[in-house]
Known about the structure:
Blueprint (H helix, E strand, L loop, with lengths): L2 E4 L1 E4 L2 E9 L16 H24 L7 H15 L4 H11 L3 H17 L4 H4 L2 H18 L21 E5 L4 H8 L3 E6 L7 H8 L4 E3 L4 H4 L5 E5 L4 E4 L3 H22 L15 E6 L5 H6 L5 E5 L14 H14 L5 E4 L32 H6 L1 H14 L5 E5 L5 H21 L7 E6 L2 H5 L1 H5 L4 E4 L1 H9 L17 H16 L3 E4 L2 H4 L4 H6 L4 E4 L4 H9 L3 H13 L3 H14 L1
Parallel strand pairs: 3-4, 4-5, 5-6, 9-10, 9-16, 10-11, 11-12, 12-13, 13-14, 14-15
Antiparallel strand pairs: 1-8, 2-6, 3-7, 7-8
Amino acid sequence: MSFQVFGISVSRGVAIGRAVLVASSRVDVAxxxxxxxxxxxxxxxxxxxxxxxxxxxxxxxxDLPPDAPxxxxxxxxxxxxxxxxxxxVDAARQWIQERHYNAEWALSAQLEVLAxxxxxxxxxxxxxRKADLEQVVxxxxxxxAHAQDKGAPGAAAVVARDFAGEDPLLLVAADIAPxxxxxxxxxxxxxxITDIGGKTSHTAIVARSMDIPAVVGTREASRxxxxxxxxxxxxxxxTVIVNPSPIVLEEYRFRQxxxxxxxxxxxxxxxxxxITLDGQRIELHANIELPxxxxxxxxxxxTGVGLFRSEFLFMNRNGELPSEDEQFAAYRAAxxxxxxxxxxxxxxxxxxxxxxxxxxxxxxxxxxxxxxSMGLRAIRWSLAEPSMFRQQLRAIYRASAFxxxxxxxxxxxxxxxxxxxxxxxxxxKQQLDDAGQPYGLVELGVMVEVPAAALMLPMxxxxxxxxxxxxxxxxxxxxxxxxxxxxxxxxxDPWHPAVLHLLASSISQARAAGKGVxxxxxMAGDALFTDLLLGMGLNCFSMHPSQIPSVxxxxxxxxxxxxxAAIPRILESEEPGRTALDALASQRLH
Length: 590
């Protein structure tokens, strides 16, 4: 039966394929692919975990005191029956063999299939046994986690499988953790669908960075869609079509072909300098997450890296932090790959939607904080972990000997934070001097993403070399909107007058002070905002490489002087979004 699910469009385009469900569980489950040669080994891992749980349950049953309630004995029997039912572990083998899922993912996928069957049972008693099944699966998952060595496969071990001749796959989940997104980033999925999230949730950002369609905030997609259903993601309309008719399927395939032609046309602008009609040269930089992303940056025609999100080096490590040498190697690889172009490295920005396996050496876990977006995150966390922070600073400064490096501090709201960082940098330089290790001149910048930073910018500018405006968090904190919460996603408004005033004043003040200014948030990569930012005086944009061609096209057609004339009218408007589109379009027509 065909039906539609509606959500929030966060990455445009059309994707067609079979659904792959990532079931949620109270036990944290790793999701990665194994190679064909590892299939039997992975299945044996699952069998060993099942056998371990079976022994555990049998021991519990044997150790029951004589006066124990009969219900306890019966419950253990039920769990043993479920555990040894061929519909569970034996059936999970299919996911390992055919899809090359790791054991944990395969078991979770099979749980999803069986849970649907239990939900559809008419008998109340049988339907309630789903809870027992979930408890059994969680025991097996815990056994798998306990048996897994510390060297378990992480992002670097993900196998990008060759699916030639097979159906394309679309990922469906309640939510996708950033750590899993790293693993999926170079895998086989052609699109994402999640129950929760907003336009600037991490899932949305990564989907756009992968240049694949995505719809988030669907609320119930992971419950309504079944494994292997044929699904269409309409990333333009924010619609998901499940089991479409042949006519609808053909219509969307035509749209896919049209999108591919448009991307090919824009790709021809790759090596064209981004110069406006009135002769203003605009720098289009790339946002990257790992050193290997520099290849896409160069291929897109980026003139530098405006944001290297260093926190992704800290993820999928089973709680261990990367060493100084490991970080140095990563930063150096990125710097050398960019061939003298600037590379802006943001210090580790964890917390909120990007927690680590272990948030600090003291195992601080942010999910226990009521509001992690307002808690110990970003520069606050770095300053609370001075040893870790100095280690990162040393790695960054060592890498600066190999190219143009800029240092960016996230979530700065106090002048004291900058001064603490400057003192840490002084100590790091002294340590490197004492060790005879070379380093280059590193510019220091701060992210303007907290309203306090925007409002006290003249003071901050006296202590830094440049600023980078992170519009995602700036909008979130200015409007008091959790950008990952679909319940308030409609209130997340980049066109809000307060946001536009903070943007315009920040750009203006930085330029007046002779300091560099860029925008590295999602607004920078959205061609809908290119004219607005150009009119405000912005001359450096940083975005995912896949977004550069469409923004460059807008830049090449823009006259910044004409666009600037429309900005006062936009800032004075009660409905700046509508006014901006009309006013900026009018300037283009003249």
